[in-house]
Amino acid sequence: MKKLYFLTMLLLSSFAQAQFTHLKPNQEVPEQVLMVMNDNTSKTGYVKNNGMDYVALRILSQDLNSFKHASVEVEGIKFKPEGKTDYETIPAKDIKHIILSGEDPVRFDRINVYRFKKKSLEVKDKDPAIMFQVPKVDDYLVMYSNIYINKGSGGSVHDQLNFFVRLKDSDITYFFNMIAGVKDKHNLPQFKILAKNNKKFTDYIDKLCDKKSEEYSHYYKLQGEAMKEVADYIEENKKLSWLDVRSIQYNARYRFMFYFIGKKLEEFSS
Prior knowledge:
With about 270 residues, this protein is of the alpha+beta class. It has 4 helices and 11 strands. About 25% of the residues lie in helices and about 25% in strands. Strands 1, 2, 3, 4, 5, 6, 7, 8, 9, 10 and 11 form an 11-stranded mixed beta sheet that branches. A hairpin with a 5-residue loop joins strand 5 (about 95-100) and strand 6. Helix 3 packs antiparallel against helix 4 (about 240-270). The protein is globular.
């Protein structure tokens, strides 16, 4: 399996969020953007924050209950075409993705997110929540995340681990809520929603939850090797804050999980 970890990139998600969370209402995002539409046509220009809140494009939220609140959903993006002076509202449903230019371009995908019942895998929502998110894993599975680290009492058990997951060629994205402070076996069954009629895959997920299985041993051996690399990086960078350390650890652990399981799903689907 190719290496998933590029340690210099582990802070990317934190950086990408930080640059948008302090804009004031109607403040223009300084970088020029490339807006790609569903029909693959594109236009260049500028976007600005929604005037109703303090989150640029209403793309990212620091709300601990992010999925439940409208502030992470968006019906339209305010866009000013290059060479124009006035903004127009582009319906979110017509946009494929938005790329912010700069030294390190950042792509925000438009995703249609559905919630589902963890036990029955029944989809709860008739209509999806439309959001824009930066992909953290972009392979057979595409994964987006909003990770909120608890700075108060209770420690990491109160961290919020929200993931949005879709198949590469699918327009349907599912909301995964990974509960912090519990063993993976309590969270892994959510993956079955991605291919609930693929028995090879659902059986594999069950084996990943069985501590006595070969699949369990193989997965956690590889995860351990990957996390050892991350631990070495943290040890070499002692000036990292505890917040950075926990963010790096979460990003590494879950990027490995979604990438690895995505590769297994690809294998069982061929």
